[in-house]
Amino acid sequence: MKNSRQETRPPQVKIPGVIGGMGPEATVDFLAKIVASAGATCDQDHIRMLLDHNPTLPSRQVALASDPAPVGEAIAAMAKGLEKSGADFIVIPSNTAHAFLPFIKAAINIPIVDIIEETVSQIQKASIGDDTNQQVGIMATPACLTANLYQAALTAEALHPVVWPEQEEAAFMALVYEVKAGTAHSKIKPAMKKLALSLVEKGATALIAGCTEIPLILEPSDLPVPFFSSTDILVERTLCYALGKEPLPSMEPRPINL
User: Cβ neighbours of residue 182 under 8 Å, at least 6 residues apart?
Assistant: First the structure.
């Protein structure tokens, strides 16, 4: 008997290469969601992926505050290895790591699916407020915010970014480190939710989970405004490109100021 999924799902046409380990649990969450979203009924229904899971990379926060080159070159080497192994495009389930795109793009000849651009594109298509009040709260690490990744992308779509003051940025980063240290999610959730609501109080009519640790803790039902998980969006777009539903994105990187 033929598998009904094999009859209805387009064949895989492109192989994603996943740069993982930043952080490990967030990478596992991304991979698990790819599996859960495939609609598979047997092994052969799932998509093939290539993975370089390297949690030994130095802190991206420290690198972006000092010298980004060593970390950027290390991530670029991971991308190059995935390309040599047969990857047709690269995905990185880490928002902050996208600050190193100039290094990565210089090393490879395949596209990168940009989690920042894909997330903002989804927000732009959604209704998140009236024409004069489309304010988007950015939940992201201090390095991601300093690199202006989401702010620039939102502004380009006539959306208004809302960010934390420095004290709340530091409080958020402390929670991210708690996740990476293995602290129970239930212990972190109240403080994470409080930080999310602080952006709503500042006028945000939608929120971006612009750090892939956030969807491990918070769900859309926890918040009073639309909540866009960058992880979930990257999952959907990875499957879309792997199955050839849309052409791969342009090779041209978005300008980034390091």
Answer: none
pLDDT (average), residues 30-54: 95
- The pTM assigned to this predicted structure is 0.92
Residue entry with tokens 């997330």: 119
pLDDT in tens, 17-35: 999 999 999 999 999 999 9
Q: Residue 137 contacts by C-beta under 8 Å, 6 or more apart in sequence?
A: 161, 162, 163, 196, 199, 200, 202, 204, 206, 207, 208, 225
| Cα within 13 Å of Cα(13), Cβ side | 10
Identify the CA nearest to 191 among candidates 179, 208, 207, 181: 179
Nearest to 168 by CA among 144, 147, 139, 188: 139
Euclidean distance between the first and final Cα of the chain, in Å?
A: 55
Q: Which two tokens stand for residue 245?
A: 């539903």
Domains of the chain: 4-115+233-242 (3.40.50.1860), 116-229 (3.40.50.1860)
- Secondary structure (3-state) at 160: strand
- Which tokens hold the place of 54? 């390297």
Q: In what order do the strands lie in the sheet with 227-229?
A: 160-162, 135-139, 206-209, 227-229
At residue 228, the 3 state secondary structure works out as strand
The encoded tokens of residue 124 equal: 């732009």
